[in-house]
Structures are given as structure tokens and as C-alpha cells.
Specification:
CATH topology of the largest domain: Rossmann fold
Shape: elongated
CATH architecture of the largest domain: 3-Layer(aba) Sandwich
Order of helices and strands: EHEHEHEHEHEEHHEHHEEEHEHEHEHHH
Strand content: 5-15%
Helix content: 40-55%
Number of strands: 14
Strand order of the largest sheet: 3-2-1-4-5-6-7
Amino acid sequence: MRVALAGGGTAGHIEPALSLADALRRIDPNTEILCLGTERGLETRLVPMRGYELGLIPAVPLPRRLTPQLLTVPGKLAGALSAAGEQLDRIQADVLVGFGGYVATPGYLAARRRKMPIIVHEANPLPGLANRLGARLTPHVFTGHPHAQIRNGRFIGIPLRRQVTSLDRLAMGDKARAYFGLRPDLPTLLIFGGSQGAQRVNEAAFASRDAFRDAGVQVLHVVGPKNAEEPQDLTQDGIPYVAVPYVDRMDMAYAAADVAMCRSGALTCAELTAVGLPGAFVPLAIGNGEQALNAEPIVRAGGGVMVNNADLSPEWIFRQLIPLLTDTDRVVAMSEAAGRMGRRDADMELAREVMAVARGDKPTPDMQLPEDDGDEVYYDDGKDAR
């Protein structure tokens, strides 16, 4: 089987694609996989590092809404569509799986022109234009959020790394804390803000160092590679505060922690619930506000708390977060609630669906062809692609 994956630009698109690739190879080690990407995205580092082939195509950014910027898209899209088609032809792909982002649109349209099966995975509750387009071209649409607003969507969860989904936090806790130079006997807060860090989160955390020390709370703080070059040990009075630029073993970081203070991207929320780690979510107000929407079901279920980015302050940390960290019974209850929200098998479930679609199996009963609502979607040869 030959599978093309289109998910470039950000870790939120790339990591689920690579987790699906790993699952496909576990089912059939002979599966040939090609990842479509651009030369300016994280995929140039992440895809080869995981041992997969990367096929480069031009980036075609799509605005999330109908704006004048859309007028510049057709010219850029033609070249990207041609490049994507060449990549699909080169490996004679049996199926294309798109995860949104810059490369998804040309991937979807190139596959459509070749009458190739298309699968869409949408991680966020509010999809961008690329996946909204893709959902019009196929009945095979899967979502990472139970209430995703996308045509024909079926909730499956977000494919995650086995390194994360196989984690036993309790069994690995002491080893993980030793790995980062933390003590085994103190409440532990993990702070991170995505691959590049988060300025507001970093500032509030560093301003709360004395409060953490006084409460006996130790901290593992991933500040982002732009904010530090080397790890820093900021321990005070025997209470560790370890600041590191980057962590390539997030499974160990999750195992070391009792609570995480972090952004609430779709991938972060999926990983925290998969391992049962409570989150103090600080959603970034970007796009359609999807970060807050990602965290809301977890908070409602009792698996986390949420504070607006503008309201995050040392005072909030002192009055809300530290009392949580030092309340063992509450942390345990929140861990159990978060774990009940998690999906650990989305990678294998999606992999089985991909193989079924590539074989030509009929859609399952709850996956029906898109209805015609009068909207039209065109690709560059002018044919109606509804």
C-alpha cells in the first residue's frame, strides 16, 4: 500500500500525520509512505527525523475567512497543485490523507483530479478552509474533537505518538523526576507553551518563583528555544526550579508532573488527556478561538482549569494554581477526570480506516456522501468539484 500524507507547517498538523504513519507501518511494515510538505515548515526536520520520505511542494497559505487575500490564491495554487500531483504520481499513491495546513489544499485537489480516495482528519473544533474544502470532496472525514463543525465528520480522536499513549505516569514518575533533576517528594508543575514557548506564560511563571518555593512546589519549565540556549537550575532553598529550552521527551515531562500549565492546542489537549495529566490551560486567542474550545470539554469534565491569557498573573498562580497543586485529593480526582476524556488508540483506528478506504471498502453507515448545499468548489481546470 502506498499512502500520501498532507500535513505540514505546524506540529499540530505534522505530529498526527507521523503518528498515523507509525501506526500504518505497525500494521504492515511494507507500507510506503510519502509526507507532503513545504521547505519552510517544521516538517523539514520532523519528517526525516522519524524516518519518512518528504516530498516538497510550494506553500499555499489559505485565510480562515473569506477575505481579499483569497484573490491571490488561484495563481499560487496552480503551481502547488502541479507539484503535489507529481509527488502522488511518483509513488503511485493509493490514498491521500490530509490534516490541514499549507499542503492540504493542493494535495486534496491533486488527488481529486486523479480520482484517488481522500481522507480528511480535522483536529480542531472549527476547521480551516483547507479541510472544509477537503470535506466536500470525500465522505471519509474524521475529527479529533467530539463537536467539530465539519461536514460529514466522525469523531475518532487525534493520532498520538506511542511514546505518549503507552505511558504509565505513576510507574514512571520517580524515574522521570530524576531524569530532569527534580525531587521525588514534592508537588510538581510542568510549564510549557508549545514548541517556541509562550511569553505571557513564561513571564508569569518566572515572577512566581518565590511563591512556588514558599509553597514547596517544584517546577519543570520549558521556556522555548528562542528564550534560552542551555538548561538553567534556578533552585531556591532546596526547591527545584528547572528551566530548559526544549524537551524532546515530553512523555518523561508528563510523567514527572502532577499538573501542567500550558496553552491548549488540539495536540496538547489530546496528549494531556491521553496520559491523565490535569491542565491549567491558558488558551491563546488566535484563529477562531479554537484553543479555548479545545480546553472547554476537559474543564467541564473536571480534568483541568482555564484562565484567559490576559488574566494570567502571579496573583492567579498564587490564589488558584498553587492551592490546586498542594491539594493531593483534588489533583488525583482531576487526573482521573482528564484520563476519562483521553483517546489512546486513535492512531490505530485511523490507520485501519485508511487501509479500508484504500482497499475500496464501502463507507460505514454513519459516513455518508456530502449533501449539496449549493456551494461550489473549483480547482484550476474549472470543473465543478462538489
